[in-house]
Amino acid sequence: MSIKLFRDFLRDHFSFTLVYFISHLLVSVYCNHYISGNIQLLYLLSISVYVYILFMCFRFIKYVSTRREIQRLSENVEIEEKGFSCEQQSIISMIHRIHHTYQDQIYEIKAQADSTHKFISQWIHNLKTPLSVIDLILQNYNMNTTGHALALQHIGEEKDKILSMLNQMLKFFRLEHFTRDYTPEPIHLLESLRALINSKRNQYIYNNVYPVIVCEEENVIVMTDSKWNHAMLEQIVTNAIKYSDAGEEAKSIHFHIKQSGDQVVLSIRDEGIGIEKVDLQRVFQPFFTGKNGRTHHQATGIGLYVCSEIARKLGHHLTISSEVNQGTEVQIAYLSKLKESVT
């Protein structure tokens, strides 16, 4: 038992002690002057001091017990609230709530840090692959300078891969501060989709894949953030092109927009290699590449995870279905908005 604890106890009970003795002194003076002058003031005061000492001893035992129980909270030990006053129980309950709240926040921060560390490690590993390919291309070019056009084409392809991975990383980190860069607004879904398709014209031609758009009406307005929605659709379309695996036979990517009640559903379906059923339930998990990731070494396992997070934060419903060697279909359900209400 420390002296500091005893001093804290006396300081906490100073006001009680002061009121106690003043009240008894006033009662004693009153009895001596107005009731009987024969009353021994010293006798009354001694009784008061005796009762006071007994009471304070009891209070001190309770005080020490409470302090010890509260200190146990710092060790994450559940304590029993039996014998505590209502005030003490409310304080301990409040400390419990604060403690559990901060524990949850610390766990969430640690989980985010672990996920970020894992992503950076995977991203660095993936970034080294195109750099190694560029190095091999340059070595071959130095040995055979006649193939410079083909070498430049291959370097351009690897440059696009690096740029794509850099953009993925930027999207991943921006998700942590989504609300700072989020502006919901009505957008023309068909126009934004056409703009995205046109921006990837070269990829379509190079991979022998062609878009097919089916829309029930021309003016389809949805509520979303234009930049984040573009990032989500760009990743889905990039995956559709990459996994179409067209070869010499041309294939199509089908875009279908339809109104469904108060929602607009955009469907993006490719005719590619598809996804195994055992992998389908995990495609939105970070860093999961599945069987396709082992055959396509460019897979990072982060693209669809970012898409699912963007959709969740935007309030859109994202689903995916697939059959092996038949293709994959991704559907995004938006909240619709009539064109007449757009100013």
Automatic annotation (TrEMBL):
It is found in: Cell membrane. CDD domains: HisKA (cd00082). The chain crosses the membrane at residues 12-35, 41-61. Pfam families: HATPase_c (PF02518). It catalyses: ATP + protein L-histidine = ADP + protein N-phospho-L-histidine. InterPro entries: BphY/WalK/GraS-like, HATPase_C_sf, HATPase_dom, His_kinase_dom, HisK_dim/P_dom, HisK_dim/P_sf, Sig_transdc_His_kin-like_C. Residues 122-338 form the Histidine kinase domain. SMART domains: HATPase_c. It is an enzyme of class 2 (transferase). It is a multi-pass membrane protein. Its EC number is 2.7.13.3. Keywords: ATP-binding, Cell membrane, Kinase, Membrane, Nucleotide-binding, Phosphoprotein, Transferase, Transmembrane, Transmembrane helix, Two-component regulatory system. This is histidine kinase. It comes from Paenibacillus helianthi.
